[in-house]
Design a protein that fits this description.
Layout (H helix, E strand, L loop, with lengths): L1 H19 L24 E7 L2 H4 L2 H9 L5 E7 L2 H9 L5 E5 H11 L6 E9 L2 E6 L13 E4 L5 H12 L9 E4 L3 H10 L4 E5 L2 H8 L3 E6 H8 L6 E8 H6 L1 H20 L1 H10 L6 H7 L5 E4 L1 H18 L18
Parallel strand pairs: 1-2, 1-3, 6-7, 6-8
Antiparallel strand pairs: 3-10, 4-10, 4-11, 5-8, 5-9
Helix pairs in contact: 4-5, 6-9, 7-8, 8-13, 11-12, 12-13
Length: 342
């Protein structure tokens, strides 16, 4: 309504002026279609937050289009370093859309339920991207991690819960059989691996690719997506999702539908055109060079899963985390209203 008020006012004024200048005894000429005013389409401002990592790699074309003023809506996207920077903004209702770890979406759902900041998940945007990386050649199974110190990011987030789940499923007790030392960012894990021959870390793509190209002797020892499949055949390892603030979605359903369409196209662009997406991924601060981006994209499991498939994929993953630690999903599994459009 706000977008068309000015245009409607102009039409009314023009009509009044025309009426004043017309002889009442003469018929008023019909306005030609070309003379009718058209309300200008004003792009909706949509505040988006994402994280520096694979969950943003599918968003970069949309960010680039927005920066050039060619996007359908006014997308104001900010890339943050950690989830801790994003969560308060969601709770405060300052964000309309956020790309965040999957378990954190469930935590937010439980935390914001019944408030104006309540969120629902609209898409799974990244499947498993975590690997165990070793500077050496001694780790070939989870059993080989016994007695090791593992450097990892994501304390209180997906990497911690996934690693603990897989360690436990493989008969290892976190903190007893294996020491996990958490770092605030993946760059710190990378630095630890570079500084210590024989070091072991858990990293997401694209940092795995960066380490393997920069640190002599570094290699992927265990693909955690494959390791998950070995111990659980009823779910997939999920990394990230897209959440939408329900109040915004209710007030602006057309803008949300446009975003979902543009995000789908952006994700397809990254997967189908790595060479074209690579400079945009570098510009977003995710990787240091286009060459690394091109090498990493095939391993980042960038997806856009919505609807019933999203509910099955994400619901199974969250159920596993809930069984391991209810706090990992905010104390209870989300209801059906957690799934946008469900």
């Amino acid at each position: 309504m706000k977008r068309t008020v000015a245009a409607l006012s102009a039409v009314l004024v023009a009509a009044l002026l025309a009426a004043c200048g017309t002889n009442p005894s003469e018929p008023t000429p019909s306005a030609s279609p070309s003379a009718s005013a058209t309300a200008p389409v004003v792009p909706m401002t949509i505040n988006i937050a994402s994280l520096k990592g694979p969950t943003t790699m599918g968003l970069v074309k949309l960010i680039d289009d927005a920066s050039k003023g060619t996007a359908a809506e006014d997308y104001q996207a900010t890339v943050y370093g950690t989830p801790d920077e994003v969560i308060p903004l969601v709770v405060q209702g300052k964000l309309d859309i956020a790309l965040i770890p999957a378990n954190l979406a469930a935590v937010l759902y439980n935390k914001t339920k019944g408030t104006d900041a309540q969120v629902s998940v609209a898409a799974v945007n990244t499947l498993g991207v975590l690997d165990v990386v070793e500077v050496g050649d001694t780790i070939h199974s989870f059993a080989d991690l016994k007695g090791k110190t593992i450097y990892s990011t994501g304390k209180g987030a997906s990497p911690e819960y996934v690693l603990n789940y897989l360690l436990t499923k493989n008969g290892l007790t976190p903190g007893v059989d294996v020491t996990v030392e958490f770092k605030s960012e993946a760059t710190e894990v990378t630095a630890a691996l570079a500084a210590q021959p024989g070091a072991v870390g858990v990293l997401p793509q694209p940092y795995v690719t960066i380490v393997e190209t920069k640190v002599p002797g570094a290699r992927t020892a265990l693909d955690l997506t494959k390791e998950w499949a070995k111990v659980n055949t009823d779910s997939q390892l999920v990394t990230g999702v897209v959440v939408i603030r329900n109040a915004f979605a209710t007030e602006h359903p057309d803008a949300v539908a446009q975003f979902m369409k543009d995000y789908e196209a952006s994700t397809a662009f990254t997967n189908d055109n790595p060479a074209g997406a690579a400079p945009l991924i570098v510009a977003a601060g995710i990787v240091p060079s286009p060459e690394v981006a091109v090498a990493a994209i095939p391993f980042c499991n960038i997806v856009d899963i919505t609807g019933a498939e999203m509910k099955t994929t994400l619901g199974g993953y969250l159920a596993v985390l809930f069984g391991a630690d209810p706090k990992s999903v905010g104390g209870s599994l989300p209801g059906d209203d957690f799934y946008y459009g469900g």
